[in-house]
Write a structure and sequence with these properties.
alpha/beta, five-stranded mixed sheet, three-stranded antiparallel sheet, 12 strands, 38% helix
Length: 403
């Protein structure tokens, strides 16, 4: 409460004394640029009609009936009185004193439901934060709404927009004696839900689930982190506009222009901020990921820079890449996504396209390429001659090993 009172006293001094308008809390008057002042003045003027609808708001923010001009002095004595009361009497000034009276009086005047009893009976619970040390010298403190509920024994992290699916024992995630397989997946409704084959999201997610289940069966643990970052955090509408632009451009969808089309539509190639993504990994106590089922360089860099050790990166198997998604996967490899053994160059990018049902792939389907059939999988080889599954068996190699 001492800190609250000190802060209230400081703000009270600003509110009741002459202070140039449009100055941020951490800026001196000479640090505010003219364009900032003009924009703030314009915003204030634009809010005028709405402020006039509420007499108390108009009296406070429209002195003399209009918004303050650039460089004029704006005083807020009402706010100063409120802050002074809090500084002097603490929480009772708000919940039981003049401020509560004023709030209830205004609420009832406009048909609101607040009563004095609502404020007087309000209680807050001070809780000690949960601390976790994930590696020497680094401690994370969390305070969650879940901690204020004595009837709940679950601890909810302050991390929004993410869902975790754990395979195996939860305790194994933070135990370095157990191996961890993990996929961090960003939402893609088009593929994940509706099965679009223009990208690898759904098959890569399914592959991640399979690998996590296998790890749990081996005695380790698996983790899928599903983040709500639809369309590279640009949104689903923007994503489908990009898809249309890719398909309708001259020459059809090509790996060479994959990122360019996104930038033309959205202004940026990617709006995701992966630096915050490791928070949920830290919260689970994970310090090492043995198998990271992702090719994303941004996710890998964010995790390793946050102190998470990654032993092995698992690329999506070629046979799981939909024909139409080859454009995406080759463009990403060329842009720095993990690929084994080498990423494609500019020439190969130009050769990878998908147009009107015609497919040209880096992995074959060119002159001299002959398909090799194994079960329900078809592999093609861009070499001259006729190879069959029998030929590979005669040389002691498997069809899969020859890919």
């Amino acid at each position: 409460m001492t800190q609250v009172r000190c802060a209230a006293q400081r703000h009270q001094h600003v509110a009741e004394n002459d202070s140039p308008v449009y100055v941020d809390a951490h800026q001196q008057p000479n640090q505010v640029q003219p364009e900032q002042q003009n924009q703030r003045a314009a915003d204030w003027r634009a809010a005028g009609p709405s402020l006039r609808e509420i007499p108390t708001s108009a009296a406070c923010f429209l002195p003399g009936g209009h918004a303050p001009a650039v460089g004029s002095i704006f005083r807020n004595p009402g706010l100063a009185r409120s802050l002074r009361a809090i500084a002097q009497d603490g929480r009772d000034a708000f919940y039981k004193g003049l401020l509560a009276d004023a709030i209830v009086r205004y609420s009832q005047s406009v048909g609101g439901l607040f009563t004095h009893q609502d404020f007087a009976e309000h209680t807050s619970t001070d809780v000690e934060p949960v601390s976790k040390t994930n590696w020497p010298g680094v401690r994370y403190d969390y305070v969650s709404p879940g901690l204020t509920r004595p009837d709940l024994s679950v601890f909810l992290p302050p991390i929004g927009g993410a869902t975790c699916y754990i395979f195996g024992e939860v305790a194994a995630l933070a135990d370095r004696k157990h191996k961890i397989t993990c996929r961090v997946h960003d939402e893609c409704n088009g593929s994940d839900v509706f099965g679009s084959d223009i990208c690898t999201c759904r098959p890569y997610l399914v592959h991640g689930v399979e690998e996590c289940a296998r790890e749990a069966q081996r005695g380790g643990a698996g983790l899928i982190v599903y983040n709500r970052k639809e369309g590279r955090a640009l949104g689903e509408v923007t994503k489908f506009l990009v898809y249309n632009a890719r398909k309708r451009q001259e020459g059809g969808d090509t790996a060479a222009t994959y990122f360019e089309r996104t930038e033309c539509v959205a202004g940026v190639q990617d709006a995701r901020f992966q630096e915050l993504m490791p928070d949920v990994i830290h919260w689970l106590g994970i310090t090492r990921i043995d198998r990271f089922v992702s090719m994303s360089n941004m996710k890998y860099d964010a995790l390793t820079k946050a102190g998470i050790e990654i032993a092995e990166r698992v690329a999506i198997p070629e046979e799981l890449v939909p024909q139409d998604a080859s454009v995406e996967i080759e463009a990403k490899k060329a842009a720095g996504y993990y690929a084994a053994p080498v990423a494609p160059g500019k020439k190969k990018l130009a050769e990878t396209s998908y147009e009107r049902g015609k497919f040209s792939s880096l992995f074959g389907n060119g002159p001299g390429a002959t398909p090799v059939v194994s079960g329900n999988r078809i592999y093609t080889y861009g070499i001259t001659g006729h190879l069959t599954a029998t030929d590979f068996k005669r040389t002691g190699e498997s069809v899969e090993g020859a890919r």
